[in-house]
Design a protein that fits this description.
alpha/beta, Rossmann fold, five-stranded parallel beta sheet, two-stranded antiparallel sheet, 6 helices, globular
């Protein structure tokens, strides 16, 4: 911030922008934290959407792994030493409509194997039977397009509810 000759304040704003072709791993390596960052598994069949959501989550202080299919999501959840706790993920963020297996199938598999793992659904659909099922399961639902602030607030609420539930149980 500085004063211009006309005695008005001038602002300069610098935004974090990813250069085309720069891998998200580069940005992850530059971010440090003293507290563990919540790990989010993002599942979406659209690469652009996946990259955009992961980039936003990184800027909001989350660690993000993106996958393009339900099968890849299940592999990630079963991977590592933390297979009993969903591969060490703190939350699953999934699109509802994908080719092959749907987000609803992923929800069923996650609920069966890791019932304490929070899930948030993102979708571009208006009103379908699948949306009714998601609402019946009391899973947070975000309609595309959504703002980064809305996504962050929804994830924080889902993680807070899970923390309260696990402490009570």
């Amino acid at each position: 911030m500085r004063r211009a000759e006309s005695n008005r304040l001038q602002w300069r704003c610098f935004l974090a922008v990813r250069a085309v072709g720069t891998p998200l791993a580069f940005y992850r390596s530059k971010m440090t934290a003293t507290t563990p960052r919540p790990r989010i598994l993002v599942v979406d069949d659209e690469q652009h959407q996946l990259d955009t959501v992961c980039r936003g989550l990184l800027l909001y202080g989350y660690d993000c792994q993106g996958v393009l299919s339900v099968a890849a999501a299940l592999d990630a959840l079963n991977a590592q030493d933390g297979a009993d706790d969903g591969g060490g993920f703190d939350l699953v963020l999934t699109d509802l409509t994908m080719p092959g297996s749907s987000g609803l199938e992923l929800i069923e598999r996650v609920r069966a194997a890791w019932p304490q793992l929070p899930i948030v659904v993102i979708t571009g659909l208006a009103a379908t039977a699948e949306l009714g099922i998601v609402r019946e399961l009391q899973i947070p639902l975000l309609a595309k397009p959504f703002s980064p602030d809305t996504l962050d607030a929804t994830i924080r609420r889902a993680l807070a509810v899970e923390t309260v539930d696990s402490q009570a149980g």
